[in-house]
Amino acid sequence: MFIARYENTMRNARPKGVEPEPRKPRPQPARQDAAVAAYRSIDVLEARMPAREIISRVGALHGYTLAEITGPRLEKKLVQARFDAIKAVADARPDMSLPQIGRIFNRDHTSILHALKKRGGRRQETAEARKQGAAE
Length: 136
Prior knowledge:
Elements: H1 6-11, H2 34-40, H3 51-62, H4 66-70, H5 76-92, H6 98-105, H7 109-119, H8 124-135
């Protein structure tokens, strides 16, 4: 049984009336580099394009193969290409969940979530446009 001591409970206590310091805003990274421009030039919004083909196309723009992008290496340029490929798959295939995308990339779904946060998340207007297109 755990018994809390007074010293331990008061060590982390904040004095009454003292507000915590506000968090500093994080600097936003510059997103308009050559890799992003190349990614945006890929037409990956074809109906139900296989995820492995999307990865191959993005990898080819960066100079990597499908095996290298889905592999374990952590070189900076390769990781950037992997993040671009994850973003492209997530945008083109809104029907796929994060664990499904993670299985393709041999990664955990939290790694996929991290990559999407770095690249700006999934494109919402794409999913909405497809729903409207299916309704017509």
